[in-house]
Amino acid sequence: MKDIVIHTENLVKTYRRYKKEEGLYGSIASLWKRNYEEKTAVNRVDLSVREGEFIGLIGPNGAGKTTLIKMLTGIIAPTDGEIEVLGYYPNDLRNEFKKQYAVVMGQKSQLFFELTVNDTLRLFKEIYEISEQEFQRNKQYFMKLFGVEELMDVQVRTLSLGERMKMELIVSLLHNPRILFLDEPTIGLDAVAAKQIRSFLKEINEKKGTTILLTSHYMEDIQVLCQRTVVVNHGVKIYDGSTEELFDRYQKNKRIIVSFGKPMRKLLLETQDARLVEDTSYKKVYEVPKESARRLLAEMMKYEPGDIVVEEEEIGVIVERIYQEGSEYLG
Amino acid sequence: MKTQLVWRADVIFNMVFTITRIIFAYLLWEMVFQQKEMVGEFTFHGMMSYYIISSFLSQLEMSEGIGIEIHERIRNGTFSKYLVIPVGVEKYFMAMELGIVLFYVVFDFIAAMVWVFIFRIQFVFTADNGVIVCAVVMAVLGMVFMVQLNYFLGLLTLKYQGIGTFLMIKNNLMALITGTIIPLALFPEGIVKMMRLLPFYYVTYLPAMLLSGKCGEEAWMGLMAIGCWCLAMQFIIHGTWKKYLRKYDGVGI
Lengths: 331, 253
Fold this sequence. Notes:
The structure holds 2 protein chains of 2 kinds. Chain A is of the alpha/beta class. Chain A has helices at 23-32, 65-72, 95-98, 117-127, 132-146, 161-173, 191-208, 219-225, 243-250, 293-301, 315-325, and strands spanning 4-19, 35-50, 54-58, 80-85, 101-105, 179-183, 211-215, 228-233, 236-242, 253-259, 275-279, 283-289, 307-312. Chain A starts with a strand and ends in a 6-residue tail after the last helix. The model of chain A has no long low-confidence stretch (mean pLDDT 89). In chain B, helix 5 crosses helix 6 (129-155). The model of chain B has no long low-confidence stretch (mean pLDDT 86). Helix content of chain B is 73%, strand content 0%. Chain B is an all-alpha fold. The chains are: A alpha/beta, B mainly alpha. The A-B interface holds A 15, 39, 41, 62, 64, 66-67, 70, 73-77, 91, 93, 95-96, 98-99, 101-103, 105, 108-110, 114, 124, 127-128, 155, 157 and B 3, 77-78, 80-81, 83-87, 245-246, 248-250, 252-253.
C-alpha cells in the first residue's frame, strides 16, 4: 500500500466578506459601520490521497475546489480542521515542503512574463536548487514531450495561451514534484491543446509516478485522466470514489452536436429516445441516453454530416443527479 | 516591440531625471551664489557636487514599485505566486531590487559624470577613505531600508486593503527629509535634529553629504542609526507577516 500524501479531516474554510449597500449613501455609511457576512467555502471535508493517484476534483462554480487547492498548497490557512500534506502543515510555508509540490492555476500564471522561456527555466532551477545535470535531463525530456524546442528563446509574454500552459507545466515539473496540483489547466484552451495537455499529464502520472490533483469544469478531463473523482458542492463533499462508477451511475446522457455542409430539414430518426435540443438548418443538437448514443451516431452517418461532436453532460447536471439519487456522503 | 520601447524609455527617462534635477539646481544656485560666495557651509561647486551625488543616489532608490506590486498582487490574488515557490518573499524582492540597481547604476553614473563635465563643476569629494566606506555602506543600508519599508507597506494591504494614504505620507516625508530638493543643512538646527531621528535622513542625504566632504563627524553614528532602523523594520515585517498572512484569501472560492 502506498503512502498517504494528503490528509484532511473536518477541514473548514470560512471567508469573511464585506457587504455594502449600493450607491453613495452606502459608501459613506460604510465608513462608520461595516457589515460582514460569512461564507463557508469548504465545509468539513475529509480527504485522503495516496502517492501516485490521479484524482479529479469537480464541482460547479463556487463549490470550493480552488479554496481546497489553496489550503492544500498553503496559500491560505484553514479556519478549522486538520490538514497534512507530505507530513507538513501547508500554511507554515516551509521551503522544504514547497520543493516537493507544484501548483498550476489556469487563470493565474506562475511565470515571469519579461523573461524568455530559457531564462525562466534557469530561474526556477536556481529557486528549486536543482543540480545542473538533473536540470538538463528534465529540460530535454519536457521540451521533447511538449514539443516546445522552438519556443525556448522567446519572451513568455509572447506565447499563446496553449503554449503558455505547456510552459507552466514544464516549470512546475522541472523539480520532480511529488504532488502536482492543477486548477483548471485546460480552461480557455482549444480542443487540440486541451487534448495534448491531457496526454502529457497522463504520461507524467504514469511514468514519473507524480500524484496529481486536478480540478476542471470539463468532464472529459476527468473521465480521461482520473481513476478517482471527488465531487464537491457548496463546500461539501458529495461523492468520493471511482470515476468509472461516477459516470456509470450519475451520467445518463450524451450530447451529440451534428453539423452539416448543406441545409437540412428535420431528420427522421429511428432512435426514439433522442431529444432534439437545438435545431438550425446546418446544425442539430441531440441529447440522448448514453446507451443509445452509438445507435444515434450510426444513424447520423447516413446524412453525411460535416462534423460530429460528442459531449459529456455538464458538471451541474451530475451534481443535481447525485442530490436526487442520494450518495453516502449526503447522509 | 511595445515592451522594448517602454523599457528603453524607462532607462532613458531615469537618466534624464538625474539630469533635470541637476539643471534645476544649477540655475537656482547659480543665481543665489551670484549674491554671495557661501550659503551655509556650501560653496557653489560644493553645492553642485552635493546635488550630483544626492541625485545619483536618489535615482537608484527605485523600491517604491515593490509596495505597489505587492499591493496589486494581494488585491488580485496573484500574490499566491510568491507563496508557492521555495524562496522568502522579502528576499525575492530584495534580489529583484538589487538586479535593478546594478543595472541602472552604470547609466546614472554616466549621466552624473557627463554633467560634471558639461557644467565644468569642480567636483568636491571627500578624501577620507573611512568616510567613503561609511557613506557607501550607509547608502546600501538606506536602500535596504527602503525596500523593507515598501515591502512592509505592501503587506499592509492584507489588513487595510488600500495603502494609498500610507504611500502618500511616505513619499511626502521622503521628498522633504532625503534632502534631494534642498540640503537639510540649510534648515534650522532644531529641525535637522528631529530629522536625524528618522531613517530617511540616512538614505540619501547623509551619504551625499559625507561623500561631498561634509558632516564627517556623523558618519559612524549615522551608520549605527540606519543599521538599527533596518533591524527594527525587519522585526516589524516579521510580526506583520505572521499576524496578517492568515488574512490573505487569494481571491476567489
